[in-house]
Amino acid sequence: MRRPEGPWYRAARNAWYATIDGRMFRLAVGKSNKHAVWMEFHRRMAERRAAPDAGPPALGTVAARYFEDLAARSSRGEVGPRTFRDYVGRVSAFIEQHALTPGRRD
After folding, report:
1. Shortest CA distance to 84 belongs to which of 75, 96, 97?
2. CB 50 within 8 A of CB 59
3. Is the CA virtual torsion 5, 9, 12, 15 positive or negative?
4. What are phi and psi of 92, to 5 degrees?
5. What mean pLDDT, rounded, does the chain reach?
6. What is the pLDDT of residue 1?
7. pTM for the whole thing?
8. Residues facing residue 16 across a β-bridge
9. In Å, how far are 39, 70, 75 from 100, measured between CA atoms?
10. Which residue of 5, 46, 77, 79 is surrounded by the most CB atoms within 10 Å?
11. By the 8 A CB rule, do 16 and 28 touch?
């Protein structure tokens, strides 16, 4: 059965989710957090509408967003300190090697 358009609550994870363009997003944690759920849902829907005109983000922007998410997950205990350092090191090395590489047209 197809999920309804809009947020739904997943009791096993105590979190609200939504599927937008075939991708599932966690919107908020906690069943009583409905205001935050709808705010996040509308923010993501607005991003979805704005994204096609914007084009792909720069490599530095993607890395910065990833580091923010990684730091948040680390502070919640979802990612250990060793894993955090490893991920940051690997992504930083990738950026240093590929950030100035000119795009190829194959």
Report:
1. 75
2. no
3. positive
4. -60, -45
5. 79
6. 53
7. 0.44
8. 9, 28
9. 37, 24, 32
10. 79
11. yes
